[in-house]
Amino acid sequence: MNKKITIAIDGFSSTGKSTLAKQLANNLGYVYVDTGAMYRAVTFFAMQNGYINVESFDKQTLINSLPNIKLQFKFNADLGFAEMYLNDVNVETEIRTIEVSNFVSKVAEVSEVRAKLVEQQKEMGKDKGIVMDGRDIGTVVFPDAELKIFMTASATTRAQRRYDELVAKGDKVTFEEVLKNVEERDYIDTHREDSPLVMAEDAIEIDNSHLNREEQFALVLDLVDDMTKTL
């Protein structure tokens, strides 16, 4: 039997990191952790409590409130994946809105928020057999991961994917609004002082601008097979 490994998937927003990670976890029998959902849940908490809005961001009050934030993933057998719970309430739907997307990169900039979540993420992956996606998984959370993937695609391609996804859910958004959000998140993610989005030196870059989900999955599954055979 092949030895279990840690798979770290990083990359820009709306590159399909979570979709790929779920596919791999299901196929390999690994644990899947969506770190983006964790940052989104903290952002939703901040929005609920009035700590962040279009005019202001009360970072210190959010930092002081971190001990009151309980995050859990609970597996939903009907859906086939784990959903995000914030203080014992299912917020999986609420955290996927464009409103949360507009603030999540700003919340993720806060060092104290990152420290809290990275600590939890490291604990989740201590036994390997895990697929984790985010912005700093291969560089900060699991720098020793056996397989690191860095996903990218053009901003226009990513915005179109995100727009189609939101419209399919019934959200009232414009393509221009989504594209602006993608570009702003790219800038914040790559320019923040604490753990900016960068490709790890030993990561394998995949530009999926012209790949469908099946092609991408087959490509990465081959990489996993090659890696586990050498261990």
Pick out its properties.
5-stranded parallel β-sheet; alpha/beta; 17% strand; Rossmann fold; 231 residues; 3-stranded antiparallel β-sheet
Portion of residues in helices?
40-55%
How far apart lie the N and C ends?
11 Å
Mean pLDDT: 94
Structural class: alpha/beta
CATH class identity: Alpha Beta
Unreliable segments (pLDDT under 50, ≥5 consecutive)?
none
Taken together, the total number of domains comes to: 1
CATH topology: Rossmann fold
What is the CATH-assigned architecture? Answer: 3-Layer(aba) Sandwich
CATH superfamily: P-loop containing nucleotide triphosphate hydrolases
Q: How many strand units?
A: 8
Strand order of the largest sheet: 2-6-1-7-8
Shape: globular
Total number of helices = 9
Order of helices and strands: EHEHHEEEHHEHEHHEH
Cα Rg: 17 Å
Largest sheet: 5 strands, parallel
Strand portion, in percent? 15-25%
Characterize the structure shown:
The protein is of the alpha/beta class. The chain has a single domain, classed as 3-Layer(aba) Sandwich (Rossmann fold), CATH 3.40.50. It has 9 helices and 8 strands. The strands form 2 sheets. A 5-stranded parallel sheet has the order 2-6-1-7-8. Strands 3-4-5 form a 3-stranded antiparallel sheet, with helices on one face. Strand 4 and strand 5 form a beta hairpin. Helix 4 packs parallel to helix 8. The radius of gyration is 17 Å and the shape is globular. It starts with 5 loop residues before the first strand and ends with a helix. The mean pLDDT is 94.
